[in-house]
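User: quick one, sequence for these tokens?
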């Protein structure tokens, strides 16, 4: 369902014949909705590609899953004179109470394959650092 917590909405274009085939499977009860079909197809393809994904995650030193940065986390980095490179396959979040100045002082780069959630001010301040 669109808007479910933990999900992201995407838009895809599908040819009319493929869409008709999906609708047929839905009408025949193989899937409850078009969305159910598409999610199942995506999961099946990801399962087929699991080994390649794992190897790439390891090679690119990505965090797999979720990574959250609180104001306290970033203040500790600032106080230590350090910066972080956010590299995530999944979901990376920066707490809403993090000011843009703190983010620019502590976040060197952001590479997220999935979703990156932060306030508009933080995203704007990090602009060129987001890959």
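Assistant:
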């Amino acid at each position: 369902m669109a808007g479910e917590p933990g999900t992201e909405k995407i838009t895809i274009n599908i040819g009319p014949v493929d869409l008709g085939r999906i609708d047929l499977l839905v009408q025949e009860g193989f899937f409850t909705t078009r969305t159910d079909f598409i999610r199942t197809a995506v999961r099946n393809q990801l399962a087929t590609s699991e080994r390649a994904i794992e190897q790439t995650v390891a090679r690119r030193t990505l965090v797999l899953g979720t990574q959250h940065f609180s104001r306290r986390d970033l203040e500790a980095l600032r106080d230590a004179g350090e910066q972080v490179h956010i590299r995530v396959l999944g979901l990376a979040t920066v707490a809403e109470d993090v000011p843009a100045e703190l983010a620019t002082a502590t976040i060197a780069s952001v590479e997220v394959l999935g979703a990156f959630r932060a306030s508009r001010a933080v995203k704007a301040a990090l602009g060129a650092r987001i890959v």
